[in-house]
Amino acid sequence: MKERIAHWLGLEQKSPYVRNYFYATNMRASIYMALVVVVLEVWMIVRTTVTYFKPTNTYPLQYYLRNYYLYYFILLAAGTLMLVFAVRFLRGKKDHPALGRSIQWVFSFICLYFGIMVSVNDYAKGEQILTFLTMELFVICLLTWRPIVAFLILTVSYGIYVWRISGIVPVNVRLRAIEGGTEAAAGLTVATKINLFTMWLSTLMFSISNYNKTLSQARKDEDLEGMNARLSEISVKDELTGIHNMFHFRSEAEKLLGYVTTDKGNIAFLFFDIENFKSYNEKYGFHEGNDLLMRVAQMMEREFEGSLVSRYSDDHFVVLTRYAACEEHVRHLSHAVKTLQREVHLELKCGAYRPADGESDPSLALDRARFACNCIKKHYDCAFRLYDKALEDDFHRKQYIVNNIDNAIENGYIKVFYQPVVSTQDGCICGLEALARWLDPAYGLLPPGAFIGILEEYRQIHKLDQCIIRQVCRDYRRAADQGLPFAPVSLNFSRLDFELCDIVDYVQTQAQAYGVPRDFLDIEITESALTEQHDYLQNAVRKLRDSGYRVWLDDFGSGYSSLNVLKDYQFDVLKIDMKFLSDFGSNEKAQPILENIVSLTRQLNMVSLTEGVETQEQFAFLRDIGCERAQGYLFSKPVPIEQLRERIRTGELHMAKAS
Ligand code: C2E
Ligand code: MG
Ligand code: MG
């Protein structure tokens, strides 16, 4: 109830937005009012001056000054002041609202006072009281007042007016009375009272309705504006961490790069990655992982206060900041991240890129910063890397590889080199490993290290592996057709092959198309691909073996969870990583470890193969401990098939009898 009454009176609480809305509406209305008043007063001044100078005029200047000019000039001054202030406001100068409101009040009262004065005069002359009514309409209906204020202004002004005229007898009434031989008494007629009451009431009603309309429009606008603000906040904020998102980063960075005044030599794009965050997530779950990301985001905002900081994706963040002190900030932040918790070794890595003059693409800058960041992954205690000339060459090569893999396959730049695997019993070739080479017209011979990782990163590796499968099957067909000897070939598969295509089906189709027997193709899967538990990989390995292919575990012992892999998967051949032979002579533990691995392999019903054999001594040792197969530069480096054949033909290498 209280609220209702407050609403009727217009005394309800108003938000600053609504109060400003009312103020702005009144300022706009004031322009029309003030303009009419100014024009009117100028006209009155001119008219009075003409009257004063007419030959029939008998009144002195003082009379005109006191009775006319004084009022006209007060009104003109008030109107002009109001007009100037309102125009300023509409032009965007919204300062001194209290002064603006005061001017509005003063102007309104002057108008009302003027209306009453002129109309009291007119009433006395028996004329219509139009000035009073017009001023009431102007003040009460053009401007928006709270109902209680409108009521008070109206009632007081009507009261004063009625009080002033109730003691006057209009000239025409007096004349009519004289004509009728009576004396006219002062006082309002019933008709005049009713007319004035009707005008008072309708003006009040109009004012209240105007107030309510303006109030509801103001609230609607406020809601809309609030919604817009919320929407635009959502569109630029990262949902999880609450810091800005990439949409905001890109648009702001673009603007900054576009300004001619930006000193590009002094800014840097930073790309952050939290190394080992995955392990943290796995250990503590997503909830804790998210919590950590939020903390890192806040730390980052604090460290780079005043710079552009956003979450890129997952555990990646980006910053656009001044280059000068950024390395120091990164070190500080990196230390803070390390000390957040002790259980998982988290390392914050940062790549930086300084845009050259004329560069305006933030995405490219971030790509380069990310590239620099990726370069220091797994480099213990190295937190910062600036993208420089050496990295730039690398970056271009990487771009080249990703953009040209299709082209390279189509034009036959991808070649298969074969490296023999020999039996330790007789030294004869019992298998060949197919290893990819990229013979590029621009870069020359590229080893797999230069493109396998990149193709995996950009999820293009399956294209290469399919190409190798095709070539191996074709080489087999040619050899078979020409009656040349050929040994079973092992193919290297990437973990991603199983995700990006149905690689098992592809091998089967190609083998069928070229008539390659199943036992002529073996599949090598590197140990690091299997360290994460993926059901689909277990299924894929099983499917391959069920289809009659032998599956080899490549690079055994290179990772941290080699034994787990043996527990979870079944393999036919265990390829012992070459790192055990690399320190064969210098590390006394290398030999017993190798011996044990070979014995374990036997117990698990697998064939053992050691890679990286470079000396006769190593070979003899492997034979003595019972390792069945060996591969390495001692026998041959990976070579094209023709070269391999030539070596076999010259008796340098020997094929096993069965081949
Ligand atoms: P990997 O499968 O372990 O291949 C063995 C690597 O060791 C080959 O390097 C080979 O040249 C090298 N190697 C062999 N014997 C010796 C030796 O006695 N001493 C030394 N120092 N190195 C030796 P490559 O050809 O550069 O291949 C590197 C890796 O690239 C391969 O390791 C394999 O993981 C990957 N890769 C090669 N070709 C393909 C392919 O077609 N597809 C996929 N997905 N990966 C491939
Ligand atoms: Mg291999
Ligand atoms: Mg290997």
Please characterize this protein's 3D structure:
The chain has 659 residues and is α/β, with parallel strands linked by helices. It has three domains: 2-228; 246-387, Alpha-Beta Plaits, CATH 3.30.70; 398-649, Alpha-Beta Barrel (TIM Barrel), CATH 3.20.20. It has 23 helices and 14 strands. The chain has helices at 2-9, 16-53, 61-90, 97-125, 130-142, 147-166, 171-179, 190-236, 246-258, 277-303, 326-338, 362-375, 389-410, 452-457, 461-482, 497-500, 503-514, 535-546, 562-568, 579-582, 590-603, 616-625, 641-649, and strands at 267-275, 308-313, 316-322, 347-353, 384-386, 414-423, 429-440, 444-446, 489-493, 521-526, 550-556, 573-576, 607-611, 629-631. Strands 6-7-9-10-11-12-13-14 form an eight-stranded mixed beta barrel, surrounded by four helices. Strands 2-3-1-4-5 form a five-stranded mixed β-sheet, sandwiched between helices. It starts with a helix and ends in a 10-residue tail after the last helix. It binds ligand C2E and magnesium ion (MG) (2 copies). The site of ligand C2E has 26 residues, from β7, α15, β9, β10 and β11.
